């Protein structure tokens, strides 16, 4: 039995950085340009003794042509549909934005276990905004840093419970 975890969130919160860390290879494109991950990417993730399939997704609002935006939304919905659990990522430094709330609504509708990561919270940066993430109604946010690998044991515990 293999489990699938979808990484969801608006562009630039650090989804691809997390994906690369979990998969251990640079399969996903990380860029300072929001939303550079245009295609869904899958990889085999390992965290402690957990093995699972992880899906990286692009955002849905960064494209100008309506058709492309629609494709990205469809991609997010497809990832949500095929996931056993969802890792929802927000940017603890930027705080919660209207786009985060849009994505949170999609995630809530999927009615699957959700793990909320307040990313970019290394060295306690953005710890205050982490509390803002409580307001999304997706449970307790885990302060996290995909770039620095902080919060991985909390993510492990949450995945163990979810899967
Ligand atoms: P995505 O659009 O959600 O896939 O985000 P990316 O993974 O492409 O990351 C967007 C930007 O945030 C890049 O410049 C990353 O280096 C940066 N980033 C990702 N994770 C962290 C983190 O934990 N801390 C900080 N400070 N920056 C991060
Ligand atoms: Mg990306």
Topology summary:
Blueprint: E1 4-8, H1 15-23, E2 41-47, E3 50-56, H2 66-82, E4 85-91, H3 98-110, E5 114-119, H4 127-132, E6 142-143, H5 152-162
Bound molecules: guanosine-5'-diphosphate (GDP) and magnesium ion (MG).
Guanosine-5'-diphosphate binds at residues 9, 11-17, 30-32, 34-35, 37, 119-120, 122, 145-148.
Q: Quick gist of this model?
A:
It contains five helices and six strands.
Describe the structure.
The chain has about 160 residues and is of the alpha/beta class. The protein has one domain: P-loop containing nucleotide triphosphate hydrolases (Rossmann fold, 3-Layer(aba) Sandwich). Helix content is about 35%, strand content about 20%. It is built from 5 helices and 6 strands, in the order βαββαβαβαβα. The protein has helices at about 15-25, 65-80, 100-110, 125-130, 150-160, and strands spanning about 5-10, 40-45, 50-55, 85-90, 115-120, 140-145. It has a 6-stranded mixed beta sheet, with helices on both faces. α3 (about 100-110) links the parallel β4 (about 85-90) and β5. The chain is globular. It binds guanosine-5'-diphosphate and magnesium ion. Guanosine-5'-diphosphate (GDP) binds near residues 9, 14, 35, 37 and 122.
Offer a few descriptive terms.
163 residues, alpha/beta, Rossmann fold, 6-stranded mixed beta sheet, 6 strands, binds guanosine-5'-diphosphate, binds magnesium ion, GTPase Der
């Amino acid at each position: 039995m293999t489990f699938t975890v979808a990484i969801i969130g608006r562009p630039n919160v650090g989804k691809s950085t997390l994906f690369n860390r979990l998969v251990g290879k640079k399969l996903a494109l990380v860029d300072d340009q929001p939303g550079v991950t245009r295609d869904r990417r899958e990889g085999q993730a390992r965290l402690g003794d957990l093995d699972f399939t992880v899906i990286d997704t692009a955002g849905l609002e960064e494209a100008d042509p309506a058709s492309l935006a629609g494709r990205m939304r469809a991609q997010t919905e497809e990832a949500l549909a095929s996931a056993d659990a969802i890792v929802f990522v927000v940017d603890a430094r930027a705080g919660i934005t209207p786009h985060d709330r849009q994505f949170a609504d999609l995630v809530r509708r999927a009615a699957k276990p959700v793990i909320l990561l307040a990313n970019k919270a290394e060295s306690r940066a953005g710890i205050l905004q982490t509390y803002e993430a409580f307001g999304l109604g997706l449970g307790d946010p885990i302060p996290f840093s995909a770039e620095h690998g902080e919060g991985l044991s909390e993510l492990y515990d949450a995945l163990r419970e979810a899967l």
